[in-house]
Amino acid sequence: MTAVERGLLPIAVVLELVAMCLASQSLSALAGVLFLVGFLWAGKRLQAYSRALLVVALAVTAWLTYKGELTTPQLIKASADAAFYAAFLGSLGMMQCLVRRFEVLRRIHDVLLGGRPVWLYPKYALVSCGIASVLSFGMMNLLCGTLSETLSERGITGQSRLRWLRSVLISTLRGFALVPLVAPTSVAVAILTRELPVLSWSMLLPFGATAAVALVLLGWLLEQRRFRQVSTERVALDQWPAGTVRLLVLVLVVFSVMATLVALTGLKVSAAAMLAVPAITLLYMLWLDRSPVTIARESSVQISAMSNEMAIFAASAILGVTLSAVIPGDALSGLAAQAGGVFVLAAAGLLMLPLLSAIGIIPITVLSIQAGFLPQLVAEGVDPLPIAVALVIGFSLAMMLSPFGPSVMLLSRFGQISRWKVAFRWNGVFVLIAVPLLLAFLALILR
Fold this sequence. Notes:
The chain has 23 helices and no strands. It has helices spanning 3-22, 25-42, 48-66, 72-92, 103-106, 108-112, 120-135, 137-154, 158-176, 179-182, 187-195, 201-231, 244-265, 269-289, 292-304, 307-326, 341-358, 363-371, 374-379, 384-401, 406-415, 419-426, 428-445. Keywords: Membrane, Transmembrane, Transmembrane helix.
């Protein structure tokens, strides 16, 4: 990692946060340019998928601009959206700096495997969701990385190791997939509320929470027997690890600051999270370490380490703006006015996400394009809420089935398991059962 990468990406994140506070699209577009320069400078250090998606996004944008299909305001919006989504991930990822400072996070599997075996699956799924609401992809690094170390330290191998990986990592991934349904820090919520300011996280939450409960119950039914076998090999803790209370207080402070920002400034919850998480993290690090230079260096390394994921988010945002800009404005005209038209749109949106993710198109790319249609539907008098609910549900399912998605790739790397096995063999049956249940739930919403 070069000094340019370590400096450019953090500067771009800070610039986007300033632009967000000032509501300046031009400043945000400049941040987007800095992000792209940083990604291009990284070059071959980016993973193949990240690099390919970025090249495709830039090539499509350049071609459409050359053909006169994109206007200057649309190009500015594409750059600004790229900055917002890259900074969204970069700023929330700062919370990962706290992991090495808390023993409870290093021993989290011993903590989670305590208690009655029957509760292990829902406990893992819900705790994973809660941690991911703050750490984002840092949660996958935390839980997957610490499990790999735990199994190595204890000499757990063969079929027993595979059982641990199947039980613990799949519940971790499914917990992470609940974030779009319930968390204000979800990128899916950020995309939808950015495209349609009339939507808010609080409007989506009751429906998302209901879908989340259904998914947890389904996973519990399918996985509890395997978790009982894992529980026979756990290590009991005599007491909670040091720092547990301090960590809980810190997380409560983060969410309190987010709530205050939303109440006093009118910022969306996702934007408030982008400001609160790095601010509280940096203040805590400064309080502990008393060295601004060391903290600045660690922070820049942490942000730059997420360059692959940020490049994927930025490229997806660019594709979403450019492709939706050239789709005819009347493409969906009149469809929603037909009997059952809104349900057809909602169901199609839900199903497109996991289906396209299964063939390698990551969820954020698909959602970015879908979100571009929402203003048109609202202009025709369609209530966007049911369709938005369908999209966050589809996004949640897609996170489990995307073999090239960051979450599955992280799980595959730490568990040393094929990502195809994770996406399809471990999650395929779960998603096939969940889809009809969630479509029925969607039909009830639209009655």
